[in-house]
Structure formats: C-alpha cells, structure tokens
Amino acid sequence: MTTSSFDLTGKVAIVTGAGRGLGETMAMGLAGAGAQVVCAARTISEIQATAETITVNGGHAMAHPFDATDQSSCRDLIAVTCEQFGQIDVMLVNHGIGHACPAEDLTEKEWRRMMDINLTGCFNCAQAVGQRMIQQDHGGSIILVSSNASIVAYKGLTSYAVSKAGVDQLCRQLALEWGKYNIRVNTINPGYMTHAMRGSEDRYHTPDLDQMIAEVTPLPRRGAPEELVGPAIFLASDASSFITGHIMPVDGGYTIL
Description:
alpha/beta, 257 residues, Rossmann fold
C-alpha cells in the first residue's frame, strides 16, 4: 500500500454537521486530501463559512442546508450533490447532539429528540446515500460518527449512549446488507475531545473532569478535532477497501480500561 491509497482526488464527499467543531475539521481534512466536499447542516451561515474556507485554501466545496430528521430533506441533499458533482463516493454522517441527565429524570421529549437526531437522522442519511450508491453501481464509503459512549457507560448519558449504541448496530447491519454492492460502512467513535458537542457545553470543561480524563486515559489528555481527520481519510479512501462493519474508537485508549 502506498500513500496514493489515501488520495481522495476525484471523490465526492458529503459531511453532515460540517458547520462547526468535529464536522468542520473533518470536512476540511477530506478536502485537503483531494475530495470535493458538500458541507451540510441546518445552519446555512456555518456551513457556508466552512465551504468558503475550503475554497480559499484551494479546495472544492459547496454548502447545502438540510434536516437529517426529514427523509425528503436527506434525499434532496443526495440529489443536489449528484446534480452538482455527478456522483457521490463518501458520506460522513457527523451531526448530533448531547444531553446529560440522570436516567430517572429523563423526559420522554428529551429521549425522543435524542433518538430523532442522533439515530433516526443517522439512518435517514445512510439510507438516502445508500440508495444512490446502489444505483451508481460502483460502491462507496459511509462513515457514521458514533461515540465511545456506545462502548462504555457514562453517568448521566443514558439517552445519548443508547442513541450511539444504535448507530454502531446500524453500521453493522448496513455493512452486512450492502457489502454485495461494494458499499462499506464503518464508524468513528470519539472519546473526550477538546471541542464540546452541542448540548453538553455546560458540563464538558471542568477541572475535576479534566483531571479524571487524564487519570483514566492511557494517552492522558483529550483528543483534538484534527486527530479525527486521519481516521476519516482512511475510512473514506481506498486504503480501507477491505474494511467494513468496523467500530473504531478514537479515544486515546479510554475504552480499553
């Protein structure tokens, strides 16, 4: 295998949740590896800023607003991408929210919102792009951003952890069903990162938490968003051509303890 196996030149990638944080960083990373990138999210101003940054740096990108909880909006995102670029090779499903609450206090409304955005929204995106990849008849790579909370338990994260466990199983199911079409489906499961997910900002950075992370993580620190770029390029590229159904923690070793 050579470095050319990681080259994304000529590939078209959609990144959801590309307007901020991890999604913004991975969208720019895929563009830096040569991909033409469609930045997708609900907030048009944020994804336009990401697309403009990519373009200024010599890449190719466009922004398209969409709602992952709406199947028709997801299908429209795929249609617009193919109209603009002629194909789709990679979809990185990164959008999501966090919410901390003791299980006994969790409301049905909070539970449903978490599942709608993190799990149903993930399925909607994967299904829409999977349908198009099957039609294209040359396969593709679907990358679902999950969490190491799908692997180990965290106090107060019941709804979030369950939604991400669902994402992991969705990965396995789609990998099984779509392998015959040369569609690969894998996850990236971040641990504690320096960037807080929307909905969890108020509890994400405290001295006690930072100390705990350092004590229980083999690489004793939080991860930087840039450290997800390598895994994303790997799973998007031909370098991972025989990998599917894989759950990939990117958490400094947190889940091995």
